[in-house]
Amino acid sequence: MLSTISQISGACVNIILYYIFIYPLHMGVAGAAWATIIGQFVSLFIAMLFHYTKNKEIDGSLKYVKPNGKLIKGIYSIGISAAIMQGLLAVMMAGMNAILGLAEVDQTILIGSFGIYYKIQQVALFSAFGLSNTIISILSFNYGMKDKNRIDDCIKYGIIDTSMVSFLLTVLFEVFAHPLAGLFGLAGGTTAEMIHVCTKALRIASLGFVFMGFSIAVQGILQSIHYAGRPLLISFLRLVVFVFPIAYLFTLSDEVVNIVWWTFPISEILTALISILILKKSYHAKIGTIRDTKISNHLIISISREHGTNGKEIARLVAKKLNIPFYDKEEIKEFAVRNQLHGTDDIEELYDNYLSLDVNKDAIINQAKVIEAIAQQGSAVIVGRSADYILRNNPSLIKIFIYAPMDYKVKNVMKNYNDNEKDAKKHIMDSNESRSNYYSIIANQKWGDKNNYDLCIDASIGNEQVAQMICIYINNK
After folding, report:
1. What residues are paired with 174 via a beta bridge?
2. Residues with Cβ < 8 Å from 8, sequence gap 6 or more?
3. CB of 105 within 8 A of CB of 112?
């Protein structure tokens, strides 16, 4: 929501200044450029304000701003391709202007109409890109977690949602083509004939928006599963390979002003057909090979708990009674280091990966791999870290949730951490909120919901009694 506010704020400033600079101040094209630049800076400054005042999950201290070669390499492996894709928009604009300039008609009308159309179609284009970026954020996480069901849902609903939005924009442009052409054509030199041609262009070209939305959604999917070249290929097809020769053929006709706009829906349809083939091949190569983690017959007990229930101590007792290893976040980290699964020796990065509840995609994925390795090695009691979800496909998994009344938890926290009553309540609420947020991001489920566990038990009966009841349940299961 906050990122949307920052973007909309910049866009509103751009629109207002666009009018002020061009008309009252008579700044012409330079005024339009300055309006755009100022609008972008407004978006940046508002986004920075929100980041440093509202984003409590990230420490904005400059001491954490330091280069990381591995991260930079990962960013540019995908980012260069994405940057080129954006640059192809300018290539298409320049190429179309050159091709339209070959037509033996009034080029002012033809090229001017294309310029207006290009500005308007960016509404649909960037709407699709916005949804594509959402697909990237969600799908890349689930791909890293190797959750095939959620991967399939992300792909299905990402394509459906993008196509639906594109279809609605098509309807909007078909209905309001003329007023939109007039609105975006508010500049010196725009004529009634140009607005008429642009209206026709909008109504024809918008027929390809659904196919455009599909192709852009596919680009997001491909980027999410670590393809860089294939999304770029799709952009190259829809913006250059198909557009330029088709547009050139239309310029040879005497009816070029009326028919050249079919270039865009034809190009989008052809690109969408190829995108289907690319997506199908990519899915089989990267996603179709995902299988459920090899299942062991080891006894795995995941114990989730509210802060202040002595859940960790209870888990230790259960492990001791059953004579199996115990793992909390410290032991998980040590297992990762001992088995060379940690991937780093940096102290801060180790903390982020294994000891923090910050929602860090790479850390969550790394930790999931370590927890799966622990389950493969042998029986274990694992405390927290969303192990119940990570090992959800293991038939030997038993999921426990430990809760307690607030007064019981407050007494434990006051005793264990030397807190006063007020601080104890705050720490309990903050800790439980962090655990809930962490779990909901990973599992897409409600933390503490009895439907997600095999056994929920009240810790106020005492540590020993709770551990004994858990062991009885396990032995009788």
Report:
1. none
2. none
3. no
Of 280, 207, 278, 205, the residue nearest 236 (C-alpha): 278
- Tokens at 216, concatenated: 């852009």
d(CA 437, CA 82): 31
**Residues near 95 by beta carbon (within 8 Å), at least 6 away in sequence:** 240, 243, 244
The reported pTM is 0.67
* Per-position pLDDT tens, the chain of length 477: 677 788 788 888 887 887 788 778 888 778 878 988 998 899 899 988 888 887 766 666 776 677 777 778 777 776 787 788 878 888 998 899 899 888 888 877 888 788 878 878 888 888 888 888 889 888 988 888 778 888 999 999 999 999 999 999 999 999 988 887 777 655 545 567 888 888 898 899 999 999 999 999 999 999 999 888 899 999 999 999 999 999 999 999 989 999 999 999 999 999 999 999 999 999 999 998 876 544 445 789 999 999 999 999 999 999 998 889 999 888 888 888 887 775 555 545 544 554 455 556 667 778 888 888 888 888 999 998 888 988 888 888 999 999 999 999 999 999 888 889 888 999 899 888 888 888 888 888 889 888 889 999 999 999 999 999 999 888 877
User: Distances from the Cα of 99 to the Cαs of 203, 208, 441, in angstroms?
Assistant: 21, 21, 49
How far apart are the C-alpha atoms of 317 and 467, rounded to whole Å?
6
Angle CA 265–160–164, to nearest 5: 60
Cα–Cα dist 121/126, whole Å: 9
> Buried b / exposed e across 420-455, counting CB within 10 Å, b at 16+?
eeeebbebbeebbebbeebbeebbeeebbeeebbbb
